Amino acid sequence: MTLTGFIGRIFFLPLRLIISVCVALRIHPNILTFVGVLINLAAAWQLALGHFISGGVIMVVANIFDFIDGKVAVELNAVSAFGGFWDSVIDRFSDIALFLGLIYLYSSKGRTDYVMIASIAMMFAIMTSYTRARAESLITKCKVGFMERPERIVLFMIGAFTNRMAAVLWVIGVLSVFTVADRIIYTYLELRDRGEHAVV
Amino acid sequence: MKRAATLPARVLWNAFFWTYERATWQYDVMVVAILAFVWLTPPDWLKDPMASGPGLLGWLRSLTQ
Fold first, then answer.
1. What pLDDT does B1 receive?
2. Cross-chain Cβ contact A164/B28 below 8 Å
3. Which of A135, B35, B40, B59 is deepest in the core (most CB within 10 A)?
4. CA distance linking residue A185 with residue A126, whole number of Å
C-alpha cells in the first residue's frame, strides 16, 4: 500500500461513522452540500482575518460535509443528476470563498504581489474544473492533471495549520496552470485521434 | 547515452502531463516533493506576508553548523 493510500484509509474510519449517522438520520445529501459551503464561508472569513488555525479547523469541518455528501447519496439511494450538478456548483463557491478570504487578507496588508498570486491561483483553480466539465461534453473522460479539488483543500489545510499559506498558494497556482494545460492538450489529442478537426 | 539523456526528460514530461491515479507511488513522490517545498522553503525567500524567518531549512542548516 502507498503512503497516501494508507493515510486515506486512516482518515476514512471516522468519516465512515459520520456517514452512518447521516444515513440513519436520513439527511438529504443536497442539504449536506449546502451546509458545507456555509461552513466554508466561515473558514474564508477566518482566513480573511488572518486566523489561520481557526480557519483550518473550520475547513476540516466544512470538508467533512463536502466529502460525505456523495457517499450519503449512494447509501440513501438518492443519487441524482441534479445532485451532481448542485455539488459541482456549490464546490466552486467554496473554492472561490477560500481564495477571496486570502485575497482580502493580503489586500488589507497592502501586499499586491500576493493578491495577484492568490487571484491567479483562483483563476486556474476554477479553470481546472471548467476545462474538465467542457472537455467531458466532447470526450468520455478528462481526468488528467495533478491539482484537483481534494489536493487544493488538503494544501489549504496544511498552509493554514502550519502557517505556510504563501508556499501553498505558489504550489496551487503553478500546478493548476499545469493541470489546465494538461486538460487542453489531452482533449486536443483525443479529438485529433477521433479524426475531428478543431473548429475555431 | 541516449537513454540517459531521455530519462530525465521523460520524468519531467510525466510530472507535467500528469495521468497517474491517487494512491500510486508516483502520487506519493509528488506529495512528498510538494510537502518538502511547502515546509522547507524559508518564508523569507517567498516574502510570505504572514510568516517570517528561515523556516525549517534554516533550522536544519543551523543544526549542521
1. 45
2. no
3. A135
4. 18
